[in-house]
Amino acid sequence: MTDEQSHNATPLLQARGIVKRFGSLTANDYIDLSLFPGEIHALLGENGAGKSTFVKMLYGSLRPDEGMLSWKGAEVSIKNPAMARQFGIGMVFQHFSLFEALTVEENILLALPPQQAKNLRQRIKTVSTDYGLPLDPTATIADLSVGERQRVEIVRCLLQEPDLIIMDEPTSVLTPQEADELFLVLEKLASEHKSILYISHRLDEVKRLCHRATILRHGKLISECDPQQENAKTLAAMMVGSEVADVKRVPQDLHDAKKCLVVRALNLEPDLNTGTSLVDVSFDVAKGEILCIAGIAGNGQAELFSALSGETPVSDVGAIVFEGWPCGADGIAERRRRGAAFVPEERNGHGALASLKLSKNILLSWNNANDGTTRKGIIDRMALARLEGAITEAFDVRMAHPDVEAGALSGGNLQKFVMGREVKRRPKLLIVSQPTWGVDAGAASLIRQKLVDLSRAGTTIVVISQDLDEIFEIADQVAVISEGHMSDMYPIDEVTREQVGLLMGGMDLNGPPEVTAEAMAQSLMRDREAEDAV
Amino acid sequence: MPFKLQRREEHSAWMALFSPLIAVALMLATGAVLFASLGIDPVKGLSVYFLEPLQSAWSLQELVVKATPLILIGIGLSICYRANIWNIGAEGQFVAGALAGSYFPIMMVGWDGPFVFPAMIAAGMAGGALFALIPAALKIRFGANEILTSLLLVYVAQFFLDWLVRGPWRDPEGFNFPESRLFPSDAVTPLIIEGGRMHIGFPIALIIALLAAFYLTRTIHGFQIQVIGESPRAARFAGFSQSKMIIFAFAVSGALAGLAGILEVAGPIGQLRPVISPGYGFTAIIVAFLGRLNPIGIVIAGFVLALSYLGGEAAQVTLGISDKIARVFQGLLLFYVLACDTFIVYTFRRVGVVREAS
Predict the structure, then answer these.
(1) Most exposed: B162, B236, B277, B302, by fewest CB within 10 Å?
(2) Contacts of A97 in chain B (CB under 8 A)
């Protein structure tokens, strides 16, 4: 991106004063954005900032209430996605829309207009080799990894020869290595004068990849900036609207600490055919320690949470030992009674019920006779109101009026509430899955600090997470789950992100030499970048 | 389609309150059209159907008599439906309760005294509950769909009753009519007004409605019903057992249907006959939904549906049309109430853009 281009060239796409309202909510409030050929442009913002709404209007699945769009200098109105594709706007979605039972070729065929169906297999091969996206057109989708599925989506998009490609959080499901490969593809596309609108909330990749960034907050345009001139902290501050506190973590020596949770040869078949079996999972966690279990979603995390929480008891009683008590076959209520607490990944419909008031939501995990929430089976509403007040205050849960329905809280506030509900139990053991998934940066930082504080007060914590930033902020030990197998545990100070990334991709750390060398090189590059940033 | 259904951000409290009233209004409007197409003045038709039954002391008592079983059964069904358990077989559980309770007056002739009636009540409730546990057990053990099993068991109960009153339990002095002997005085449901028709079933139903309201809103067990009904995953997280709830909900709704059954045969009917219910068990499904699955709402809804029975009889007498018209009105009401309930959670929105499934 040169100055000449930004000042003289006609923008490929220009949006001016775009407004979109949903009832009383203004999702986009006078957004301007211009995209030049060959530019990788980041659209940055937290969840709920209005990024998705904005790109849906560019792709024709929503229409703006006000404002105007121009494409290659001419004012246009994009009525539907088919029209967007005719203009040359393609989109790669965050959640894939592929049929698992069909092959790559069949899936691509389904999305193309009939006149483009000729020589499809050959064209898939050409596009995929041109852009370094290796893909077998005859492979069945169900057999492909997440990264490969994304390649199918990208190839499908490229076959329509778009001038603008919109990518919605493309790296959220990828390992660091897969993400690096994707960045190479995007850079190649940009060098061919294609434009890319790159939606993300990951600041390091935006800094690394993008030429310009537009930052949205609460539906408003906050800034348009050059990510190279900013650092991660200033970008985050623009996204969140205030400085995000760093998590304070005092390293602790746990060599002599007693083991609180011991898992030995845990096996579990999944509930659904599409799940992942746990195979021979073993680990142990000392009292007061935080063990983070990294992994790409869908590698057995759901099953691991089910087994550890007792939602799905296992037949081998001794597979899980909690403070000397073999409890593999016991249910979740019994494990709670003994002092364990659990936070599932999904808030709505699992950890909380949207239709219930917060005080009633407390009863989901505080329903034992000795919890003080019931007397002879009758709900003590005063006790619930007191708990609700204490939890929402301690975890800064922001709500319109006291004791709202859980569904009226934002994702971040609901997660703070669910976390606060379990922390308030003063558990000996806390198992948390994806504690800050889909949560804004401010809430994430508060939740992480509370987890660290809780562990330093003696609670043993197991965090299942796919967020490497989070893991490196809070973990004492890290292990990786991949296809239902668990890696060894490593002290957090003795591994790098790249090593964890390799484990997440299913390799072990003594893998093939060229992979390790490449990872080493990347690691060195990143370290240098990090020094530059300082 | 220029319109589409869109999920509301929050439940509409307004619609939750008014949906049953809108449904009643739509039912009346459709009824007017029906009467007109039959060549009957719609105003006269509707007033014969819905107003005349409310204008005499006799028919007001009859209204209470018909509302009582509907309320009792409706409360039991509401517990099932809140837990997402679909007991459609209350009609069969009603018959099973009536049969079990009738054992004493029919087979133990000569046993009298103050314990006969309580024993009949207890046997009636137990009979209904045990019969309801069959679909519960099939669902837990084999995953059988309780909608089908509970519905089919209705016909089993009805044919068993039919066989009993034509065979072993037929009144030996009854001139070969398919009827049991008349229940002796100690085995008859006590009346509220001497010489009237209202019996103690009605105050019992009111007390049960109050108990159910307390149970559903204030006890941890009632809370379990709500959680299991809304999200089995959240229930599993909370440690609530779905199997136990299936057994509980079927047992309670079966017991209440059985109670309604024995009160009916020992009260207004006074003996067993091949047919002992004008479809109370099915109509109570409408009562439960019209009453918002809320025990107090069910008391009100019970009266509305009881009126549809009386109106059907009035229409037959005064207008000369089949009393099956009652079924038509009941069906319309259920249809409209479910349709209107959609708008508690959804709203209509005009769409200008054809959205692609992507």
Answers:
(1) B162
(2) 358
Which of A93, A156, A355 best tests the B interface by mutation, with the highest count of B CBs <10 A?
A: A355
Structure tokens at A353: 């019920």
- In A8-65, where do the E strands start and end? 13-22, 25-35, 40-44
* Rounded Cα gap, residues A447 and A395, in angstroms: 8
In a domain, B198, yes or no: yes
Radius of gyration of chain A (CA): 25
Contacts of B96 (CB under 8 A, 6+ apart): B127, B128, B130, B131, B157, B254, B258, B261
DSSP A112: S
- Reported as a single tens digit per residue, the pLDDT across A383-434 is 999 999 999 999 988 887 888 888 888 778 899 999 999 999 999 999 999 9
The Cα–Cα gap between B262 and B266 comes to: 6
Domain count, chain B: 1
pLDDT level of residue A509 (50, 70, 90 thresholds): low
Task: Return the minimum-mean-pLDDT range out of A33-37, A131-135, A197-201, B124-128.
Answer: A131-135
Asked if A350 and B358 come within 8 Å (Cβ–Cβ), the reply is: no
Is a pLDDT exceeding 80 seen at residue A99?
Answer: yes
Partner-chain residue, chosen from A81, A311, A374, that has the shortest CB–CB distance to B236: A311
CATH number, residue B193: 1.10.3470
CB atoms within 10 A of CB A139: 14
- Given a cut of 60, whether residue A527 has pLDDT beyond it is no
Closest CA to B31 of B341, B335, B342: B335
Q: Which residues pair with A166 in a beta bridge?
A: A91, A197
Lowest mean pLDDT: which of A42-46, A70-74, A111-115, B231-235?
Answer: A111-115
pLDDT tens digit string along A232-276? Answer: 778 878 877 766 677 888 878 777 788 999 999 999 988 766 678
Measured CA to CA, the distance from residue A151 to residue A130 in angstroms comes to 13
Task: Reduce the secondary structure of A290-343 to three states and give it as a string.
Answer: EEEEECCCCCCHHHHHHHHHCCCCCCCHHHEEECCEECCCCCHHHHHHCCEEEE
Nearest one of B239, B238, B84 to A351, comparing CA atoms? B238
Q: Which of A226, A260, A232, A228 is nearest to A244 (CA)?
A: A232
CA distances from A230 to A234, A533, A534, B61, B112 (A): 6, 9, 11, 82, 94
d(CA B288, CA B297) in angstroms, rounded, equals: 8
> Do A438 and A406 form a contact (C-beta atoms < 8 A)?
no
Query: Which ipTM score applies to this complex?
Result: 0.82
Nearest chain A Cα distance for residue B292, angstroms: 16
Q: Could you list the residue range(s) of the whole structural domain that residue B197 is in?
A: 3-350
Rounded CA separation B326/B315 (Å): 9
Q: For chain B, give the mean pLDDT.
A: 91
**Interface contact A374-B226, CB threshold 8 A:** no
Look at A272-281, A337-346, A417-426, A456-465 and tell me which has the smallest mean pLDDT: A272-281
Among B342, B340, B335, which residue's Cα sits nearest to residue B30? B335
Is B237 in contact with A367 (Cβ distance < 8 A)?
no
Percent of chain A with pLDDT over 90: 44
Domains in chain A, CATH or no CATH each: 3-240 (3.40.50.300), 259-533 (3.40.50.300)
User: Mean pLDDT throughout A325-334?
Assistant: 94
Task: Establish, for the pair of chains A and B, how many residue pairs have beta carbons separated by less than 8 Å.
Answer: 82
Query: To the nearest whole angstrom, how far is the Cα of B283 from the nearest Cα of chain A?
Result: 29
Beta bridge partners of A26: A21
